[in-house]
Amino acid sequence: MKNINLSTTTSITTTYEGQFAGKYLAAALLSAPTLEQGGVTILPNITYKQVMQKVATGDIVANATCDFTPTSTITLTERVLTTEEFQVNLQLCKSDLAQSWQSAEMGYSSFKTLPKSFSDFLIAHVAAKVAAKIETTIWNGTNATAGEFAGFKTLMLADADVIDVSSPLTTTLDATTVIGEIGRTVDAIPAALYGNENLRIYVSQKIAKLYVRALGGFVSNVGSNGTNALGTQWYTNGSLSYDGIPIFMANGLGANNMVATTVDNLYFGCGLLNDNSLVKVIDMADIDGSQNVRVIMRYNGAVQYGIGSDVVLYGV
């Protein structure tokens, strides 16, 4: 088990451990942009492992005869998504909020309890931090780092079946070169995938910004007036594509990385409703007489992809 231990000082209300724990965990786990925007296939309620079978066949069509003659070969292999457990432990002091929070909401007795609205705020704050961590871990996580599972890039670099596209050694990735570099990634996409409606080009924030700037013009490979002759004002946070393939901005991807594959080839597994998932807010006043409050979150998660030969990784 890996720990994320945050020792701070700020504050929270009555003991919470309840019916909305699943919703808070859903907010934490599934609010990562890659998950929230449908960039990968989500496999919920995995206690520990999920086995994904892979079927490979040779040429299956033969000339017709009157007999039954088995053709081709079938090879069954598997990839395993193994979730890991994580936790967040926060301890906060209620007295730190006494001056900044309205005393009327906190009550007038010497044993003050924080209002429910702050409890919700604190859990939402923790959930947002967890979501941000999960977003980067999905793409760049390494098992050796506390609080992380092996991300897609780590898994792909270790797989000889993944199609690697190296970064150019003599070219800087900027607005003048980004269109060509995305093109190199597209050129490496297997013919069987090209045209698939689930195909995506996952790009980092940096590459997305450079692509938007390139299409705004004023660079050597795009007219000076840019897309629709609107110059740098052409983009209004809409969708992006390249050669008809949707571009998905994956905030957790490394700055100089791209991945091309289908949504249904990328998986995120978690245990939202199983026994490994927990959210608690505990007021310690009745337990040890202190003014401390503890926030506890436990969850599990991991990523895996299905077929390595259907993945293009740029930036090796």
Q: What percent of residues adopt helix (DSSP H or I)?
A: 10-25%
- How many structural domains does the protein architecture include? 2
- Summarize the biggest pleated sheet: 6 strands, mixed
Order of helices and strands: EHHEEEEHHHEHEHEEEEEHEE
- Unreliable spans are 3-16, 99-104
Instruction: Please report the distance between the alpha carbons of the first and last residues.
Output: 30 Å
Number of E-type strands: 14
Q: What is the CATH top level name of the largest domain?
A: Alpha Beta
What average pLDDT do the residues reach? 79
The coarse overall form would be flat
| Beta-strand percentage range | 25-35%
Number of helices: 8
Q: Tell me the radius of gyration.
A: 25 Å
Q: Architecture of the largest domain, according to CATH?
A: 2-Layer Sandwich
Structural class: alpha/beta
Quote the CATH topology of the largest domain: Major capsid protein gp5 fold
In brief:
By secondary structure, the chain is of the alpha/beta class.
Task: Give structural notes.
The chain is of the alpha/beta class. It folds into 2 domains: 2-59 and 70-151 and 268-301, Major capsid protein gp5 fold (2-Layer Sandwich); 154-266 and 309-314, hypothetical protein PF0899 fold. 23% of the residues lie in helices and 27% in strands. It contains 8 helices and 14 strands. Strand 8 and strand 9 form a beta hairpin. The model is unreliable at 3-16 and 99-104 (pLDDT under 50).
